[in-house]
Amino acid sequence: MFDEIFDVIVVGGGHAGAEAAAAAANMGSNTLLVTMNLQNIGQMSCNPAMGGIAKGQIVREIDALGGYSGIVSDKSAIQFKMLNKSKGPAMWSPRTQNDRMRFAETWREMLEATPNLSFYQEMVNGLVVEDGIVKGVKTSLGLTIEAKSVVLTNGTFLNGLIHIGDKNFGGGRAGEPAARGITEQLVELGFDQGRMKTGTPPRVDGRSLDFSKMIVQPGDDVPSRFSYTNTPLLEHQRDCYMTHTSAEVHELLKEGFDRSPMFNGRIQSIGPRYCPSIEDKIDRFKEKDAHQIFVEPEGWNTVEIYVNGFSTSLPEDVQYKALKKVRGFENVKFFRPGYAIEYDYFPPTQLMLSLETKLVEGLFFAGQINGTTGYEEAAAQGLMAGLNAHRKVKEEEAVVLKRHEAYIGVLIDDLITKGTEEPYRMFTSRAEYRTLLRQDNADLRLTRMSNELGLASEERVRRVEEKENRAEQFVQFLKNTSYHPETVNPVLREINSAEVKQSDKLIKVYSRPKMTLAHLERLPEVQEHMKEERYDAEVLEQAEVMVKYAGYIEKEKQNADKLSRLENVRIPDHLDYHSLKSLSYEAREKLSEIRPSSLSQASRVSGVSPADLSVLLVHLGR
Amino acid sequence: MIQNIQDTIVAFATPPGTGAIAVLRLSGKKAWQTAATYFKAVSGKNLLEQESHTIHLGHIVRDGQTLDQVLISLFKGPRSYTGEDVVEINCHGSQYIQQEILQLFITAGLRLASPGEFTLRAFLNGKMALDQAEAVADLIASDSEASHRIAMEQMRGGFSADIKQLREQLLNFASLIELELDFSGEDVEFADREQLLGLLDALTQRIKGLLDSFAMGNAIKAGIPVAIVGAPNVGKSTLLNALLQEERAIVSNIPGTTRDTIEDELIIGGIRFRFIDTAGIRETADSIERIGIEKTQASIEKAQLVLYMLEAADLSKERYNDIQKDFANRPLVVLANKMETLSTEALEKIRTEAPEAFFISAKTQQGIEELKSGLLEKMKLGELQSEDNLLTNSRHFEALQKTLGAIDEVKTAVHEELPGDLLAIDLRQALHHLGEITGSVTTDDLLGNIFSNFCIGK
Keywords for this entry (chain A) (predicted)? Predict the structure, then answer.
C-alpha cells in the first residue's frame, strides 16, 4: 500500500501529533500522519479549554511560529478571557473555552488543507530501526511504512490503564483501546521507561442542572484572540458557571476512599500536584470544607457539561451520590464518570534539545510520552519535533529556542536538562525572564525567525512589521505631543495621582502606574489622534507595554544577555566527561547522561557546581 | 550559576593570617577606577593618571577615615597576571585590616573572586599555555573543594540555623508572590500589601542582624568570650597568669563590668580570646555569695566557650559526666589542674576515665601549650588562620549584602504598588544571592512550597 519513503511519519493525532504533522508538511517534508482513529484528530481529552496562565502564552508562541493551535482555538471558541489583566503585562494570559467537536473538526479541516500531508488510520505497534537509525514504522496489520524520520506522540495510549474505583481496564482514553508494542520495543532498544497518572472529571447532562443556583462566569466584554492572523473575534459567548462542594459532599466521597485506587495502592504512579483529584484535595486539605467547581459547556450546541474541579477515580456510584449533593447538581444525569489513567512515558533526559532521541537517530518524541501534561505543552513540543524532524531529513541544524526567547524554550530545556518527576506543566515562574516572554510580543519574538526557517508565512511577517511600526508611531505621538494641565488634572485627581502644574509630553503622564489608555483617551488631543489613526487593539497594547514597562523589560534583557554569553560557549557533542578528572564525580556522571550542548545548559544540570563549570570552561579552551 | 567572567573581581593573593603584610588583588575593567576611589596618594597624584607598572604610597580611606597605609602597584592589561587591568594593594597583615579593606571593595560593587578565578582568567586570556589546562582545572577544583568544606564546617554553627530560617522566610514570601501570579484563579487567600510589607520588614531585620552579628570581623575585633569556671582556689588566677605570662601580647587588663568578674584578653594563634574569670561556683544559701553566683551564670551565658576547672585528684568518670550535663549545649573544656600533685599511675588512671579532659599544671606551666591548641580547635578557629576562611566569611557577607539590596528594591516596588510580576524580578535576585550561601533556591522549591501549603488545582 505504501511504496514511497516518507520524509516524516507522525504517530498519533492529538495536539502534539497534529502540530508535528502540520509543521513538517508546511516546511516541505512528505509527511504521513498515522493514528488509530482519524475521527479523533485534535481531541480535547480533558477540559474543553485552551490557554490560561503561561499556557496562553505558549499558544500565542505556537501561532507566532506558524502552528495551528491558535487559529483552531479561535475558530472553535465559545468564550474568551484575558486572565490576570490586573497584573503586569507578563502575566496577561489569554484563555478560551472551546466547542470540543468544532475544535476537532477545525483541526481536521486545517490538516486536510495542508500540502504534503497524507493520512492513514491504523495502530502503529513497532518501529523499524537499523543500526541505531529509524527507518519507518510497523502497523497492527503487519504493514511496514518506510520513513526517514518518525515522531512519536502517543499521549496516554502506551499501555494505558483506566481506573474507576476498584475496576480497571486497558484503554488510551474513554472508549478507545490502548496501544501496545511500542514501549516494549523501546525498552529493548535501551530506553528507560516510567509510568505516570492523570485523571478527568465526570461529564454530565446540562439539562439536568439548575444553573440559577450557580454563579455566572461570563467571558470578557471585549474578547480578544490567540492568533496574530485575522481570525474573527467572538460576537457572542457562552457563559460558564461556578458552584462549590460542601462538607456533606466530602463525607459522601470519603465513603468511597477504601475503594479508591489512589488510596488503596492500586495506582502507584505519580500524578500532577497542581491538578489533584477531588479525593486528593479533601484528603490533603482537611480543614477546607468547600472546593470550587467550574461548570463548563462542551460546545455551542451540545448539552454536555465538563465538571471542572471534580476530577476523580472513585467508584462511579460514589461519584454520582456525592455530585448530587453539590448545589445545582441535585438532579444530575451522568454522561460518563470520571476516571484516572496510567500510561507509559520515557524520561525526557533521553532526548536532545531538538527532541530527537539520543539512542535512535531520526526518532523524535513529543507530548505526554515525554512526561508532560496539557494540550499547549504537547502542541508546542509537537511543532518543534515536526520542525526538527524536517530539518533532520534535510540535514540541517536543529532549531532550539532559548529560555529567554520563548516558553517553548523553557519547556524543552527543563525537560531535557532536568527531567521531570511528575507530569510537567508550564508555570510563568519556571521562566527566568518572564517579563520578556509576554503574550503580546510572541510574534515579535518568533515570527521572523520562523519565516526564515520556512514555516511562518510572508503575510505573518508583514503583520509583525505593521504592528511594530504602528506601535512606534503611537509612542512617537505620545513623546511629541504635550498635554494641558487643565484637561489632564481632572483625570489625575480621579486616579489619586499627583496633579501637574505645567504642560509636558503625554508620555510622562501615561507612564504613571494607574493611568490607563481609557484615561488618556479622555484628553481631547489624544481623542482626535486616535479617531484619525484607528489603531488596532494589539498595537495599542504593544505601545502600552513599551511605555509603561520599558525599565523593567530593559533590566530583564540585561540579565538575559548575561545568560546568552554562556549560551554561546558550545560544548562538543562527544566530549568525554569521564576523562576530565578535575570535575566532581557527580558532575561527570550527570553531564555524561544529559550531554548539554552549551555551558549555560550545563549550569542547569543538577549536581554541577560553579567550580565544575569553571573546570569545563578551562577545557573548552579560550 | 557560573560567575560572570567580565566583571571586576577582588581577593587576597597572599596566604594571610596575621602576617606582616598582605596583598589584595583587583582584576577587571573597574580595577583602577575602584582603587582610585578609595586611595589617597601621599604625593597627591591621581592614580588614574599614572603609568602601568608603577608603585604608589598612600592611604585607603573610607568615609574620611584612614583604614591603613598601603603600597599600590598598577598593571594595565594585557601586561598583567590575569591579562586584565590589575591593581595590587600591599596592606598591613592584621586580619582586621584585611577584612575591612576587602569588605570596602565588595561594598563598592566588586565581586569576590571564586576560588582559582585569577588563574582561570589568566588562562582564558592566553597568559598560560594550553598544556597547562589540566593543572589549572585541578587548581580550581581543589580550591573550591577546600573552601566548600570550610564553609560547610562553619555552617554547622548557629549561623547556619539563622540562615536556614532566613531562607525559609524568603521562600515563603516568594511563594506568596508567585501564588498570586501563577494561581490567581485559585480559591486561596492572597497576601495583601500590608502583610507583604510586614514580611519584608521582618526579612530586612533578619538580614541586617546577620550582617551585624556574623561579620567575620566580629570574632576578631571583639574576641571570643571564654568563661573560666570552678571552685574558689582551684587555680583559675594562676592559670590566667600562666597564659598571660607566656603570651606577651596582652592587650589589656580591664576590670570586668562586675566586681566579681575580671576580663583579660590575649591573642592565641592570631585569634583574640577574652577570658572571664568568674566567682567560684558553690552551692550556697548565703545571699551575698548567691549574687556572685548569679553573675557567674550570666558570664557563662555570654561565653562562647566554658573552661571548667577542677583539681585533677577530684576528676573521675562520673564527675566528668556530671560536668558535661551541667553545661550541655555549650562548648566546654574540662581542665584538671594541679596534675603535679598526682603520681604517674594515679594520673594515668584518671586520664583513661576522662580522656577528653586537659591535664595541666598552672604552677609549672605543664600542658599549657596543649590547652592553647585545644582552645583553637574547639572553636573551629584553627581554620580562621587560612585564606579560605576569610574568603568564606566575606562571601557570606557579600551575598547577604546583595540579598538586602534586592529586598530593598522589592520594598520600593510594593510601596509603589507595582504588579507582582515586576516585583518578582528583584525578588528573584534576592533568592539568587541568598542561594550563594544556602545552595540555589529553584522554581521547584517554590512550586513545592506552594503546593504543600495551598490547595491548588481544578
Answer: Cytoplasm, FAD, Flavoprotein, NAD, tRNA processing
Where does the pLDDT of residue B299 fall: very low under 50, low under 70, confident under 90, or very high at 90 and above?
low
CATH of the domain at B91: 3.30.1360.120
Number of domain units in chain B: 1
Report chain A residues whose CB lies below 8 A from the CB of B419: 86-88, 91
How far B443 CA lies from chain A's nearest CA (Å)?
Answer: 6
Using CA coordinates, name the residue in chain A closest to B443. A430
CB-CB under 8 Å, B133 with A615? no
> Where are the domains positioned within chain A?
6-154+191-197+343-453, 203-340, 458-554, 575-619
Q: How far is A427 from chain B (nearest CA, A)?
A: 6
In this structure, what C-alpha cell is assigned to residue B317?
568518670
Report the distance separating Cα A366 and Cα A378, nearest Å.
Answer: 6
Confirm if A10 and A20 have CB atoms less than 8 A apart.
yes
**pLDDT tens digit sequence for A595-609:** 999 988 998 998 888
Please report whether residue B311 resides in a domain. no
For residue B220, is pLDDT > 60? Answer: no
Task: Say if B95 falls within a structural domain.
Answer: yes
The answer to whether residue B176 sits within a structural domain is no
pLDDT for position A423: 95
Residue positions of A in the annotated binding site for FAD?
12-17
The question of ipTM being above 0.90 is answered as: no
Residue with more model confidence, B72 or B436: B72
Which among B4, B418, B456 has CB closest to A562? B4
Domain residues for the domain of B95 are: 9-128
Q: What band does B272 get if pLDDT is binned at 50, 70 and 90?
A: low
Q: Which of A281, A308, A566 sits opposite B2 (nearest CB)?
A: A566
The overall longest dimension of chain A from CA atoms, in Å, is 83
**A1-30: average pLDDT:** 97
Q: Do A614 and B3 touch (CB under 8 A)?
A: yes
Task: Match 529556542 to its residue by C-alpha cell.
Answer: A401
Q: Is A610's CB within 8 Å of B134's CB? A: no
Residue B258, pLDDT score: 31
Selected residues 135-164 of chain A with any CB under 8 Å from a CB in chain B = none
pLDDT of residue B213: 57
Nearest-Cα distance to chain B for A448, in Å, is 27
In A67-214, which ranges are E strands?
77-83, 93-98, 117-121, 124-130, 133-139, 144-152, 161-164, 167-170, 194-200, 203-205
- Give dist(CA A163, CA A580) in Å, integer: 49
Mean pLDDT computed over B211-216: 58
Fold of the A458-554 domain: Arc Repressor Mutant, subunit A (1.10.10)
Give strand pairing partners of A127: A137
- Rounded Cα distance between A243 and A395, Å, is 55
My answer on whether omega of the bond before A115 falls inside 30° of 0, hence cis, is no
**What Å distances lie between residue B20 and A248, B17, B61, B69, B386, CA to CA?**
79, 9, 20, 13, 15
What's chain B's Rg over C-alpha atoms? 27
Average pLDDT, chain B: 78
- Contact: B120, A617; criterion CB under 8 Å: yes
Inspect the interface and report whether the beta carbons of B422 and A556 lie closer than 8 Å: no
Lowest mean pLDDT among A159-163, A194-198, B384-388, B412-416: B384-388
Interatomic CA distance for residues B146 and B143, integer angstroms: 5
Interface test with B, best of A86, A559, A603, A615 (most B CBs within 10 A): A615
DSSP state of A569: S
Class of domain A575-619: mainly alpha
Task: Please list every residue in chain B whose beta carbon sits closer than 8 Å to the beta carbon of residue A619.
Answer: 133, 137
Tell me which CATH code domain A203-340 carries. Answer: 2.40.30.260
pLDDT at B246: 43
Write down the architecture of domain A6-154+191-197+343-453 according to CATH: 3-Layer(bba) Sandwich (3.50)
Residue B217 has a pLDDT of 45
In this complex, do B456 and A274 lie within 8 Å of one another by their Cβ atoms? yes
Contacts of A612 in chain B (CB under 8 A): 141
